[in-house]
Write a structure and sequence with these properties.
The complex is a heterodimer of chains A (about 260) and B (about 325).
Chain A: H1 2-5, E1 7-8, H2 10-27, E2 42-45, H3 51-60, H4 101-115, E3 121-126, H5 133-144, E4 150-156, H6 165-168, H7 174-180, E5 184-189, H8 193-205, E6 212-217, H9 225-228, E7 236-237, H10 240-252
Parallel strand pairs in A: 2-3, 3-4, 4-6, 5-6
Antiparallel strand pairs in A: 1-7
Chain B: H1 2-5, E1 28-30, H2 32-42, E2 47-51, H3 61-66, E3 71-73, H4 78-90, E4 94-100, H5 101-107, H6 109-117, E5 124-128, H7 145-150, E6 156-158, H8 163-175, E7 180-184, E8 188-190, E9 207-210, E10 215-219, H9 222-235, E11 241-245, E12 248-250, H10 254-261, E13 267-275, H11 280-290, E14 298-303, H12 313-319, H13 324-335
Parallel strand pairs in B: 2-3, 2-4, 4-5, 5-7, 6-7, 10-11, 10-13, 13-14
Antiparallel strand pairs in B: 1-8, 6-12, 9-11
Keywords (chain B): Thiamine pyrophosphate
Protein name (chain B): Transketolase
InterPro entries (chain B): PDH/Transketolase, THDP-binding, Transketo_C/PFOR_II, Transketolase-like_Pyr-bd, Transketolase_C
Chain lengths: ~260, ~325
Amino acid sequence: MGEVQGQGYIGQALGWADVLAVAYGHALKLRPADPEWEGRDRFLLSHGHYAIAHYAALIEAGVIPESELDSYGSDDSRLPMSGMATYTPGMEMSGGSLGQGLVIGVGMALALRLKGNPAFVYNSMSDGELDEGSTWEAAMGAAHHGLGNLICLVDINNQQADGPSGKVMGFEPLHDKWAAFGWHVQRVDGNDLPAVLAAFDTARALTEAKPRVILCDTLMGKGVPFLEQREKNHFIRVDPPEWQQALAILDQNQPQGALA
Amino acid sequence: MSSTTAEKKPRLTTSAMIASIASEGQKVQAAPFGKALVEYAASHPEVVGLTADLAKYTDLHLFAQAYPERFFQMGMAEQLLMGAAGGMAKEGLVPFATTYAVFGTRRAYDFIHQVIAEENLNVKICCALPGLTTGYGPSHQATEDLAMMRGIPGLTIVDPCDALDIAQAVPQIAAHKGPVYMRLLRGQVPMVLDEIEGYRFELGKAKLLRDGGDVLVISSGILTMRALEVAQDLAADNVGVAVLHCPTIKPLDEAAILEAVRYKHRLVVVAENHSVIGGLGEAVASTLLRHRVQPAGFLLAGLPDAFLDAGALPTLHDRYGISRSVLGARIKAWLA
C-alpha cells in the first residue's frame, strides 16, 4: 500500500502491527463475511491515519480482499489514506479528527450494555490524542458509567507531528493518570507479542465494572532495522528499492506461531 | 437627581437564566419538549436521552424520571455528549442530546460535524437558549448557532416558534432518518400557533399563517410570534402584513418562500432570533437571488453582527430591534 503512494504512516503502521495482529488474530469476535454482525466486538480506529495498518489487519482477518491493496489512497478506492466508516467494510468510525474515538466508544459501550449485548468496544488511539481534552472527558465518563466492556489501546511511540510526544506535550505519568481516572491499567511493550496477548486476555477476563486501558510502548518502524534507526519522522518517505528490502526483512523474521 | 427618579421607568434587571420568554399574561405550556419526548418514547424503546449537566434546564429531566434506564448523564462535557450520542446512534438507538445552544454548537462543533453528520447518524441535538433568550451576555447567547449548523451537510435544522411547534416537532424529528439540530424553548413556553386555524408543524415545510397585501414577514422561532403581534398592530393602521413561518431552516422550503414573495408585497422582511450573518435572512436572500426574484424592498430584521449586551431581555429585545414595538416601528419607518 505504501509503495503505491511512495510514502505514508509507515513507521506508525509497523510499530502498531503487533497490537493489531493480537486484536484481529486472537482477541476480536468477528464474522469476516458479515462485518456488521450484531455480536461482533467493535474496533474503533480513532487515529485514522493508521488506516494503512488497519487495512492490512482487515485483509488478514478476511474482511476485505487482498486484491484491493493496490488501490490504497487512489481515487474511488475503498481504502482512503485516512480511515472512514463510510468507505471501508469493518471500519467502525471515521477517524482522523483526533480525540474522537474514545467518546464514540463510551456511547457504543453504553448502548451495548443497554441492549444486553456482551460484545467489547476497543478504541485504538495514539499518544498524541492524549493532548485532546475529549480523551479525558471520555475517560471520566467511562469510569463514571462503569464501562467494563470498553478497552482502550494507546500507542505510545513517542512521536507526534511536531516532534517527540513528550516535548510536544508531556503526558506522563500515564499509568497513574489513567488509574486516577478510575481505569484498570496495564502497560506493556507493544512489540512483545506474548506480552500484548496476555494484556488483552487480562483486560477481557476482568470482572470489575471499570473500563480498561492497555498502554503499549512501541517502536516506530518495528521490524525493519533501517526504518527503526531512521530519524523519527511522523511521515516517513521510503525510497523505491527500500520497499523490497523491507518486505524481505519482514518475511525473513516472521514470528512463528505466536498467535496460534 | 433623586427628585426625578420616581418619574423614570424602573431599571429592569437581568432575570435568572431559566426565566420564561413569555410576556405577562400570555398563554403558556410547561415543558412541551420533555412531555412530547416522554410520550413518544413510550412506544419507541430505541429513544434515549443524554445531557451535559443540563437536564433540568432543557426539560429532559421529565424523560429521566420516566425512563431512568434510558437516560445518560454525560457531565459538563459537550464533546463527550455529542461523541457518545454518535456512538449510541451507531448501535441503532435514537439519542436526544440536550444542552444550551452555545455549548452544543460552539464547543462541540467538530464532534457534530465529524462524528454525527459525516456518517449521517440518527442523533437529535436539542439546544436551549437560542439566540437572544437570556440576558447573560455572549457566554450564553447563541446568536450564531444557525450560521454554524447550516454549514454542516445533511443536517436538518429546526427553529420552532412555540409550545405547539415543539410538541409536534418532537415525534417528527425522532422519526426522521438522520441528524437534526433543534433550537429548544423550555420551561413556561408561549402557546401561540393554536390560534391559527388548521396550523400543523410539518418538518421541511413553511406555512403562511396570515395573509396581507403590503408586507410579507418571513420568520422562524420566537420571531414568528413577534411577527404575528406586529401584523396585528399594523392592521390597526391599515397595513396588511402576511406572515410566512419557516420553522425548518434546513432544508429550506424554497418553493413556499418563492410563492409567497411573488405576491409582490412592497416589503419583504426576514425576522429571526439570530445574527443577520448566516441565518434565515441570508438563506432567503440567496434563494430569491438564485431564482431571479427581486422584492421591491428587503429588510433583514435579525440581531446585529456584534457581541450583545447583558441585561434584561425586554431591554435587549428593544435595543436590538426584535421586540414587538421596535420591530413594528422599523417596518412602519421603511414604509413611510
